[in-house]
Amino acid sequence: MNAMFTDTDYQKAAKILANTNNDGNFYNPESQDFIEISQIAEFEACVETWKTINKMQEIQKFDTDTAWNKLHQRISDEELNQFNYREKKVIPMRWIVGIAATVVLLVGFTSLWVYQRSSNQTFQVVNNKVEPQKVELPDGSNVFLNKDAQLSYTQSYNQNQRNVKLSGEAFFEVVPNSQKPFIVECNQTSVKVLGTSFNISSSAKYTEVIVASGRVEFYENSSISTNVILLPGDKGFFSNGNLSKITNDNQNYLSWKDHKLVFKAMPLQQVISDINQTYHCQIEIGDTSINNLLITTTFNDIPLSGIMESITLAFNLKFVKQTETSYILLNK
Amino acid sequence: MNEQISLSAIKNGNINAFEELFRSLYPPLCGYALKILNDSDLAEEIVQEVFYQLWKKKEDLLITSSLNSYLYKAVYNRSLHLVEHKQVENKYANHVLNDNSEIYSIQDAMQAGEIYQIYKKTLSQLPHRCRKIFQMNRDFGLKYNEIAIKLSISVKTVEADMGKALKAFRHSLAEYK
Predict the structure, then answer these.
(1) Residue A102 has pLDDT above 60, yes or no
(2) What does CATH list as the number for B126-177?
(3) Where are the domains of chain B?
(4) Which residues in chain B touch residue A19, judged by CB atoms under 8 angstroms apart?
(5) pLDDT digits (tens, 9 = 90+) for B122-143
(6) Which residues of A touch B15 (CB under 8 A)?
(7) Upper half-sphere CA count for residue A165 (Cβ side, 13 Å)
(8) CA A176, CA B94: separation in Å to the nearest integer?
(9) How does strand A326-331 pair with strand A234-239?
(10) Distance (Å, rounded) from C-alpha A139 to C-alpha A158?
C-alpha cells in the first residue's frame, strides 16, 4: 500500500478500470496524466485486484440457490425411498419371530403388512404417496398403484389362478398365462383376463375399467353371466348395479402413472381437472371468463410448475400458490 | 465454520452444516470444473453429484486430508474422467489430458476458492449504496452515467463509491495475486 495513493487516486484508478473492456489491456500509462512515477506500483496492484475481481465474477455466476434446492430435493427423495425400503425388509422378521409378543409399528408413507389366516398369508400393499407405486406379483405381473390405492393377494396366488383384490385406482400389466386366469376383485365386480394390460379406477360407488391391450372380461360378482367383453379402446362401467360398455374418450386415463397429458382443443376447465387428478393437487379457476379457453398441447412428464408456466404464458394468466397443494388460476 | 467441526457435523447428518459447506464451495468448484470441461451445465452437474455422493456416503467417509481438498480432488477426478471418455466435446481435451498438472492444479483452484470467500466477504461489508453501485457496474455492465440516472445520484457519487470499492478489494485481496 502506498501513502501517496489517496482516495481520489483510487477513484481515478477505478474509473479507468471500470470503463475498460475486460480484454486484459487495462491501461495505457501514457494517456493517464495523473499517474506519477511513485504511484505506478500501486496502480498496477489495483489492476491486479481488478483482474481478480473479474475472475471472481465468472465464479459468482453459478446459481447456488437453485443448485442447492435441486440437491436438497434429491437428498430428501432418496432418504424417503430408503426409509420405505427398510420398512419392507422388516416383513420376513415377522415370520421368524412369531413367539414373542411383537409390536409392529407402521410409520410412514408406504405400509405393507402381513397377517396370518388359516395358514394362508395375505399380502397387502397400500400406496399413501403421491407417486405411483409399483408392485411386482409372484408371477412377474406388475401393478402400479395410484395414491390411496390398496391391493391384496394371498399366498395361494398363482397356484391355480391369480386372484387379487383392489380398491382405488391401479394399472395392471399381466403376464400371459392361459392356464391361470388373472382375476381382480373390485367392489361387487371382477375383471378376468389371461394376459393383458388395463386400468381400473374405483370408488365405493363405481368401478371403471379401461383396456390398453388384449381382451378383458368384466362381470358382476353376484352373476357371472352378466358380463361385458372389453377390447382396447373400450371402457366398462359399473354403478348402481348396472354394467355397461362404452367407448373410452379419455386419452389421459393413464396420466396419473406416466404424467403424460394430451389435450386437443380442450376447454381450460377440463384441462385443469385432468391436471388436478394427475398431480394430486387442487387448482381452482378463480375467473369464470377463462373456463372455456381451448388448449391443444402435449405434456410429457413435465413437472406441475412447468405445465402451469406454459399455460399462464400462453394465455397471459396468473398462477398463485395458496397452500402446499392448492393453487388459484386468475386472469392477469 | 471450522473445517473439522463441519466434517464431523456432516458425518452426524447435520444438513445445515452440509448446506453451509455447499454454499461456500459450490461456485468455486463449478468454476474449477468449468475450466476443465469447458461446459457450464456439465460443470454444475458434476459438482452437484460430488456433493450428493458426499452426503450419501457421509457415514463411512474416510478423509485423510482436508474436506476442502477432498472436494476439489473429487471434482477434478470426475471432470477428468468425463474428458477421458470423450463425453465432452472439448477442443482442449488433448491439452487437458497431456498437461493437466499446471493449468488445472488443485492447489490453484483451492486458492481461487479462498479468494472467492474473501471477495464475497469484502463485497458484503461494503456500505449498501457502494455495493449496489459496484454490482451494477461489474455484474450488469452499466456505465457510470447510466448508474447515476438509475439511482438518481450524481456521477461524482458513483465515482466516489467505485473508488471506495476498489480500495476495499485492493486491501482485502492484497496477499493474493
Answers:
(1) no
(2) 1.10.10.10
(3) 3-104, 126-177
(4) 143-144
(5) 999 999 999 999 998 988 888 8
(6) 72, 75
(7) 10
(8) 54
(9) unpaired
(10) 7
* Right CATH for B3-104 from 2.102.10.10, 1.10.3210.10, 3.30.160.340, 1.10.1740.10: 1.10.1740.10
Tell me phi and psi for residue A185, to 5 degrees.
-95, 130
Q: How far is B69 from chain A (nearest CA, A)?
A: 18
Residue-wise pLDDT for A107-161, tens only, equals 333 444 444 334 467 888 888 888 889 898 888 889 999 998 999 998 888 888 8
Residues of chain A with CATH 3.55.50.30: 259-331
Tell me the chain A residues in contact with residue B167 when contact means C-beta distances shorter than 8 Å: 7, 10
Using the Cβ of A86 and the Cβ atoms of chain B, whether some distance falls under 8 Å is answered with no
User: Which residue out of B21, B167, B175 would a mutagenesis test of the A interface target, given it has the greatest number of A Cβ atoms within 10 Å?
Assistant: B167
pLDDT digits (tens, 9 = 90+) for A191-215: 988 778 899 999 888 899 998 888 8
What cell numbers appear for A152 in the block?
A: 391384496
Q: The domain A259-331: what is its CATH number? A: 3.55.50.30
Please tell me which residue of chain A has the smallest CA distance to B145: A19
**Average pLDDT value for residue range A220-246:** 86
Q: Which CATH architecture has domain A131-247?
A: Sandwich (2.60)
- HSE, side-chain direction, 13 A CA sphere, residue A88: 14
Write out chain A residues lying below 8 Å of B55, CB-based.
75
DSSP helix/strand/coil, A74: helix
Size of interface A-B (CB pairs under 8 A): 106
Using CB atoms, which residue from B19, B160, B170 is nearest to A46?
B170
Say whether residue B118 is in contact with chain A using an 8 A CB cutoff.
no
Q: What is the pLDDT of residues B45-84, one digit of tens each?
A: 999 999 999 998 888 777 777 888 889 999 999 998 888 7
